[in-house]
Amino acid sequence: MYVRDIKVGTTFSDREPQIVKESGATGLVDGNNVLGPVVGNFCMQLAIRKAKQIGIGFVVAHRSNHYGIAAHYSMQALAEKLIGLSFTNTSPLIYPTRSKQRTFGTNPLSIAAPGKDNDAFVLDMATSTVAFGKVEISNLKGEKIPSSWGADNNGKPTCDPEKIINGGGLLPLGGSEESSGYKGYGLNVMVEILCGILSGSLYGPHIRTWQTSSGEADLGQCFIAINPANFADNFEDRLQDLMDYCRNMTSIDEDKPVMVAGDPEKKHMELCDERDGISYHVNQVKYAENLAHELNIKAPPKRL
């Protein structure tokens, strides 16, 4: 997607984000239609600087693009002992509760908060049942998926990831109305307010469709940094106590201990360190090799 947008000229590679409106605690940024990670890093660092100076930094951006992993930005605050939050709107992929029209994106949100000794609470979640990328990976692997993940082009739940990718869409967090999918729908709109409406970017159904390069994406994004030292004392100790309490609760399955957000990813990172690399499905490796060949660059090294 990133490569395609730069190739066809709908994303620029020779510009920088710009601050267009600013106060002590807030900032409005024009992403100048550069790659989303460039905009995200610029905005999160701006929010962090403001939080270190006066206790909170609240920065929104318009004219941005897909920025990748939401937690990449919220976690930047951890190095400064700050709480970080990150949100983005995305292309319309979700059927709102009771609707047949795809109107909102997966609109992810993330919060990262520091505990003791480099421990942290790190939540990164889509406001759909799953992120669209998870459906794509299942399709690459040729796997069936739970019917609560998405629906076909008629809005009917399906276990076939290809039907979701080709004309279908995702369901909001919670799935159907009977299983409280309207709560995910509400969270979806909350992110849209913070990102699309507040920043002046495109929003909801006005954003270009997924996997197309028909003009600028003009995504809206929101980045917040909070200094806990400006509030009650001993934030890190108190959060650590809460996380440890949760982890030490009696599990219904002794082989599956209770975790807090960020623990599964931390365990996977430890596994990657042990293996001295990241494991990918063979189809994902082939895709990366084909892309490298197309771009005339060296393919990533691999070990079978």
Question: What does this protein look like?
Answer:
- This protein is of the alpha+beta class and 304 residues long.
- The chain contains nine helices and nine strands.
- The strands form two sheets. A seven-stranded mixed sheet has the order 1-2-3-9-4-5-6. Strands 7-8 form a two-stranded antiparallel sheet.
- Strand 1 and strand 2 form a beta hairpin.
- The longest helix has 19 residues.
- It is globular, with a radius of gyration of 20 Å.
- The mean pLDDT is 93.
In summary, what is this structure?
The chain is an alpha+beta fold. The protein has helices spanning 2-8, 36-54, 70-74, 132-141, 161-165, 181-199, 235-247, 263-275, 282-295, and strands at residues 18-22, 26-30, 56-64, 83-88, 109-114, 120-125, 150-151, 169-170, 219-226.
Average pLDDT taken over every residue: 93
Strand content: 15-25%
Distance between the termini: 27 Å
Shape: globular
Structural class: alpha+beta
Low-confidence blocks of residues: none
The largest sheet, given as strand count, sense and whether it forms a barrel, is: 7 strands, mixed
Task: Describe this protein with a few key phrases.
alpha+beta, two-stranded antiparallel ribbon, 304 residues, seven-stranded mixed β-sheet, 9 strands
What does the secondary structure layout of this molecule look like, with pairings?
Blueprint: H1 2-8, E1 18-22, E2 26-30, H2 36-54, E3 56-64, H3 70-74, E4 83-88, E5 109-114, E6 120-125, H4 132-141, E7 150-151, H5 161-165, E8 169-170, H6 181-199, E9 219-226, H7 235-247, H8 263-275, H9 282-295
Parallel strand pairs: 2-3
Antiparallel strand pairs: 1-2, 3-9, 4-5, 4-9, 5-6, 7-8
